[in-house]
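Q: My labmate handed me this sequence with no annotations at all. I'd like to see what the chain might look like in three dimensions before we decide whether it's worth expressing. Could you predict it?
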Amino acid sequence: MNEKLFRTQFNQIEITEKQALMESLAARYAMTFLGLQPFDRWGQNCTTGIFKKDGREFVFVPGDTVTLGWERFAIGLSQDSREELDYLFQEWEMEQDPEEMIRESMAPVRQAAIGPMLVGRELEELCWEPVTMADPRLIAHPDWLKQFREFAWSDLDSFTMHQSTRIERTEKGFQIWIYKRTDYDALLAGLEKQGLSLPTADEWSYLCGGGCRTLFPWGDGMDYSMHLHWFEDMEEDGDRPYDMEEPNFFGLSIAYDPYMREVVKSEQFTTCGGDGGRSICGGLGIFLGFLPCSPHCKPEVQEDKELNGDYDFYRPIIRVDMDG
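A: Here is what I predict for the chain of 324 residues:
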């Protein structure tokens, strides 16, 4: 087993040796090695390899043995978050302690041995298949074509017919997608054919939190200085990027939007990293709205197998063969 693929040793080896190690992984998995890049965020850091394959960017994430799950504040709830929760609890006339309520949403504390992985840097969309205007499925729907013509003359940037079709204005013209229903088993089988997989809930928790013992990777409360999805002031922030969407200490864009559920590998359809926006829609505010993005939040087992292209997303990974 190559110990250098695990975090403590990986972070200590010389750059030239790290470069050679990454080049050997690129050759083994038929990837293009783009180079080494340092990532430093929220008190954790890693200089690691960036790769490209089939139009996707992957990053090498070293393995580690970490504690996952949550049962109490490591530092203590931040003052701002305490005030937000106190206000909500008064509104709801709840006498429960906020820490107790948060604990109910969190997975139990456990030790997990996480192997090294090549991980898709970005979340990918499900169910929406890009097509051209000549696709026979479009022609078979004159009502869709009528809507597209109306869209073309409008000043809108995009138009979606729920779980049917979608069109977006691009620099080169228009891009069209058709909604293609699919289920959890089909997603896993399709990825397996490509030599890919999904992270398990434990692997996902590590990719998101890196083994942090705080509620979020940055601490025990919400950081209200961040530019957040659904709570931004557009006039004030303009094109400022969403802080949680920026690459983390492993170089991953992960758990930044509570509306986006990330599909993980399990015995049945399970998601992490979001609740489809239920908490935000329910008016629970910033802290509880983003709580499903905590690396320690309980994975959510879904009732059926059909994936929802509006809320479900996936991240392809390759588990590095330690004997290779």
